[in-house]
Request: fold
Amino acid sequence: MRITLIAALLLASPAAAETIAIKAGRVITDAAKPALGPSTIIVTDGRITAINPASAPITSGARVIDQSTRTLSPGLIDSHVHLTGDPGLPFWREAVDSAELSVAYGLKNARITAKAGFTTVRDLGSARLAGFAVRDAINSGMFPGPRVLAAGAALSIVGGHGDVSGFAPVVNDALDQGNTCTGAVECAARVREASQRGADVIKFTATGGVLSQQGRGLDQHFTDDEMRAIVSTAHSLGLKVAAHAHGPRGIEAAARAGVDSVEHGSFTDEAGAKALAANKGWLVPTLLPFRATAERLGSGAYTPVVEAKVRAILERRGKQIIAARAAGARIAFGTDAGVFEHGRNGQEASDMVEFGGMTARDVLISATTGAAELLGLSSEIGTLEPGKAADIIATDGDPTADAKQLAQVKWVMARGKVID
Ligand SMILES: [Zn+2]
Reply:
C-alpha cells in the first residue's frame, strides 16, 4: 500500500518544465549593441535558454508567444521605488494606516509596476517589515510582480527626513520605526539590525528631504563620520548603500563616504559630481517627482513647510544629470514611484532626454545594464542572453531611438511568467 502511494506520487510529479518560444520582430539583447533581426527566444524554467534566428525550427511542444511585430528588450529596472505607498495621501495617514495594510498596497503596486515593464525594482523605504513581506510574497510565487530588492525603513538622523515628524511628540514617539541614529557606533548598529531583518540594501537620508514634515533644510544631515560608519558596516556585510541626498555638501559627503548611489542628487555641483565619479558612485536622478509635485503646487496638497521645499527644488530638474555626466559619474534609472502613481515609471525616460540631455539609448542602458550593475545583479539581469532570467519586454517602436517607448510597454515577461 505504502509502495503504491509512493509510485502514485512519482507519477503525479510535475512534468518536464514548460518551454516557451517567443517570436520577436527584433531583439535588443544589450542596450549598447545593435539589435538582432527576426528571432525566437526560447525560455525554460524562467530562464532564457537560446536566442535563435526566426528561420530555425521551434522545439516541438513549446508554447509559442507571437510578438513578431514588436521589438523585445531586457526587462526594465527601477532603482528607486516605494511600492508600499500611494501618492497624494495626506501625511497624517501615517498615523492611521498600519504597516500590515501597506503590504496590500505594495502587492497591488508590484503588479502595476511589472505590467509597466519593470521586472526588477529596488524598494528604498517602507514601514517596518512591509517591504520585505512584499518581496517575499512575490518570490514565493503567490503574487505577480517584479524582483524586489528591499531596504526596509531608511536610516535617518533624529528629526530628519526618515524620522516620523509633524505630529505631537507623543505621536511621533509612538510611530517611531527604530531607524534613527546618532554617532558612528549607533549608526553601525542600525545597519546590522537592518541586515538582520532582511534588508537587501541600506538606504539612509544623507540630507533633508522634500516631502517630509521637517524644515531643517535640504543639505547635509548625517556627519561625515556617521556616513562612513554606515557605508563601511554595510559593505562589510555585503550590502550596497543608497544615499538620499539633495543639497550639494550632503551629496559630496555621501560620495566621499563611498556610497554606491546618490539618490535624487538635486543640487549636484561640480565638487559633488567629481567626488561621485572618483568613488565610482552612481547617480539615480529621479526626475518624475518634479512633474508630479509641480502638478500639486498651490492645491493645498502640501503643508507650508513642504510647499517651500518643493518650490526651491523645481528649478533643478535634470541639472544633476548634466553635472554628473560632465564629471564622468554614471547614471542608473530610478523614479521614486510612490511619490507619483505607480506604473508611470517609464515616463522618467523622456524627462531624462528632455531635461538631462541623454539619448534614448543612454536611458535604456541606465535602465538595463547600468542599473543591473548598481544592484549587483549583472549576472542575472540587464541583457537578454542564455542563462539569464527571462525578464523581457515588448514595445511597438525602438526604445534605443525613442525614449517614449519605455512608457508604452505592450507585453511583459518577468522571470518567465507573462504579466497580465
Ligand atoms: Zn524615495
